[in-house]
Amino acid sequence: MIILDGKKARDSLKANLMDKIANCIDRPKLVIIQCGDKEESNKYIQQKKKFGAEIGVEVEHIHFLRSVSEKEVIDSIKKANSDDKIHGIIVQLPLPPNLDKDEIIESIHPEKDADGLTSANIKLMWQGNEEAMIPATAQGVAFLLDFYGFSPEGKNVVIIGRSELVGKPIAAVLLSRNATVTICHSKTQDLVGTCRKADILISAAGVPGLVDESYSHANQVIVDVGINIARGKKLEEEIFGKHLVGDVNWESVRNVAKAVSPVPGGVGPLTVAFLFGNVLKMCEAAARRSSLRA
Ligand code: NAD
């Protein structure tokens, strides 16, 4: 079985990003807005700051208390929208329940929407428009497949999960790459039978061990997007440690499928890299716009 090593794929991308950043007129800058103190979010933000520092992108972390008002968050986004030195903005999700996620996300200017979650960007993404800012995980999945020579073109791709941030963008990206895409979800009947027909199976359900050998066959490539804490482990002790697991029951599929991505070390490292790829893309676009105005 082939292991789809996301760290190896990420390193090749990282070198390419660093080359491009070295040739940028402006130093790319990302603003991360956090509301509250979720341990999981803290760890994701740490990873983003670390990667940004490694590749030469400035990262500003605006950290509000959980009790912050929607207006305060939107005001900080508007300020970042109008600052020419800032090229990308993300709001770390999930937000505390008292805040309206959609209102907050929509206040990000689409030209600075590094997560690709504004309605303007979602529309461009489904149109297959090259200007679209595509959510990083979806780009990571496509890159990992390409890196190992598994082109999605003409293939039956089955995705488990239909979220706005993960499942749907993966579907949009692979559809634009000429795959035949089926999206499964918690109400899908015969999930096992549908998945077993897939040439490429992508699991983004967030259910540890969901995909076992009954979902697979000898010519199937499996990309495991899930990041879950192994049962019985405490989140604060185990997140990003050795007890992270994906949606795939590795022991069960390893002797059946042709290729599988591991967790950790699969799609996760690529997600961080493609977030910065988006920031770079927005920095380059801003430079083009300002040279047109000059
Ligand atoms: P979500 O909870 O918003 O969506 C989960 C989706 O899976 C839903 O559409 C639901 O219908 C479907 N689902 C859940 N249980 C199912 C079942 N038993 N059978 C069929 N479908 C089922 O979650 P999300 O934000 O889309 O994230 C999904 C997973 O991906 C999580 O584990 C998350 O941590 C992980 N994730 C990984 C990365 C990465 O970089 N690897 C990035 C983002 C999210």
From TrEMBL:
It comes from Candidatus Taylorbacteria bacterium RIFCSPLOWO2_12_FULL_43_20. NADP(+) binds at G161, R162, S163, I227. GO terms for biological process: L-histidine biosynthetic process; methionine biosynthetic process; purine nucleotide biosynthetic process; tetrahydrofolate interconversion. Residues 4-115 form the Tetrahydrofolate dehydrogenase/cyclohydrolase catalytic domain. Pfam families: THF_DHG_CYH (PF00763), THF_DHG_CYH_C (PF02882). CDD domains: NAD_bind_m-THF_DH_Cyclohyd (cd01080). The keyword Cytoplasm does not apply. PANTHER family: C-1-TETRAHYDROFOLATE SYNTHASE, CYTOPLASMIC, C-1-TETRAHYDROFOLATE SYNTHASE, CYTOPLASMIC-RELATED. GO terms for molecular function: methenyltetrahydrofolate cyclohydrolase activity; methylenetetrahydrofolate dehydrogenase (NADP+) activity. Catalyzes the oxidation of 5,10-methylenetetrahydrofolate to 5,10-methenyltetrahydrofolate and then the hydrolysis of 5,10-methenyltetrahydrofolate to 10-formyltetrahydrofolate. Residues 135-285 form the Tetrahydrofolate dehydrogenase/cyclohydrolase NAD(P)-binding domain. This is Bifunctional protein FolD. Belongs to the tetrahydrofolate dehydrogenase/cyclohydrolase family. Homodimer. Keywords: Amino-acid biosynthesis, Histidine biosynthesis, Hydrolase, Methionine biosynthesis, Multifunctional enzyme, NADP, One-carbon metabolism, Oxidoreductase, Purine biosynthesis.
